[in-house]
Design brief:
It contains 13 helices and 8 strands. It is an alpha/beta fold. It has a single domain, classed as Aldolase class I (TIM Barrel), CATH 3.20.20.70. The longest helix has 18 residues. The chain is globular and about 65 Å long. The protein starts with a helix and ends in a 12-residue tail after the last helix. 47% of the residues are buried. The mean pLDDT is 93. Pfam families: DeoC. This is Deoxyribose-phosphate aldolase.
């Protein structure tokens, strides 16, 4: 997206019209083709050695998440301990990428994870609905960063996006990015509410050029969430942006990724669509709460030949 399109203009209506013209001028998504390619890639098989490497990589990409009204400091401390050492019986199991919590519990996670290298992510901007004044969203963000969050997961104003008020969406993302300071910004599109694949592509490009460090599919509160075709479209957007600018933006599918098969399908998608440069936690994450246990069970099966019991790992 040209800088002139994103730059502030004296006439806001004209500026918004330029954004609409740009975003609606993007190539349309071949929905049948996107589904077919995602389905084809999901059938790829991975041999034992590569599978072991893929499982460890997926563990390193997990944002271990708890985003419930009943969250407590004790639950966050327990989740943080699990993120650092997912399998207490196996010190070779890698740590997760980050722990993701609500802003009021950031300080608890920061204290629990000090010196471990595991990041602290926080949802902000009136997650999950995003229905709040901008100043409230910015205060939410600033407080999480002040308490030590290294990553902020914000939600876009889907109502504004669907109404065609792209200028408002851009300005909010840019303002939140500024409020993040040194923290990375993941922009949640909530693809289940965007209605069409074309809208997913438009929202991806808009978020990328407004300052996102990552684009993220979903809050995990709306279905459908992280489907493979949607993730494919978002990977195409970051790939094409990198080809045009040399700047690499990450992707985070979240919601509904529960099994090792799901995780490996996503890794295959990353490799085939965006490329191997995205196969690291700095550029690809998996938002999940239940995925980690299945990854650990499959990892144990590969090393010992048998599955641990269903109560072997903690329930999150």
């Amino acid at each position: 997206m040209p800088d002139s399109v994103l730059a502030s203009a004296p006439d806001t209506a004209a500026s918004n019209a330029s954004l609409r013209a740009y975003l609606h001028g993007l190539p349309g998504v071949d929905e049948v083709g996107a589904r077919a390619r995602a389905a084809d890639l999901s059938t790829r098989s991975i041999k034992t050695t590569a599978k072991a490497q893929a499982i460890d990589l997926a563990i390193r990409m997990v944002d271990l998440t708890t985003l419930e009204g009943a969250d407590t400091p004790g639950k966050v401390r327990a989740l943080s301990a699990k993120a650092v050492r997912p399998d207490p019986a196996d010190p070779t199991a890698p740590s997760a990428a980050a722990v993701c919590v609500y802003p009021d519990l950031v300080a608890v996670a920061v204290d629990a994870l000090a010196g471990t290298g595991v990041g602290v992510a926080s949802v902000a901007t009136a997650f999950p609905a995003g229905r709040a004044p901008l100043e409230a969203k910015l205060a939410d963000t600033r407080q999480a960063v002040a308490d030590g969050a290294t990553e902020i997961d914000m939600v876009i104003d889907r109502g504004a996006f669907l109404a065609g008020d792209y200028r408002k969406v851009v300005e909010e993302i840019a303002a939140v990015k500024e409020a993040c300071g040194g923290a990375h910004l993941k922009v949640i599109l909530e693809t289940g509410e965007l209605a069409t694949y074309d809208n997913v592509r438009r929202a991806s490009w808009l978020a990328i050029h407004a300052g996102a460090d990552f684009i993220k599919t979903s809050t995990g509160k709306i279905a459908p969430a992280a489907t493979l075709p949607v993730t494919l479209i978002m990977l195409e957007a970051v790939r094409d942006h990198h080809a045009a600018t040399g700047h690499r933006v990450g992707v985070k599918p979240a919601g509904g990724i529960r099994t090792t098969k799901d995780a490996i399908r996503n890794l295959v998608l990353v490799n085939e669509v965006a490329g191997a440069a995205w196969l690291d936690p700095d550029h690809f994450r998996l938002g999940a709460s239940s995925l980690l246990n299945d990854l650990l069970m499959q990892r144990t099966k590969l090393t010992t030949g048998s599955y641990p019991g269903p109560d072997y790992y903690t329930l999150d």
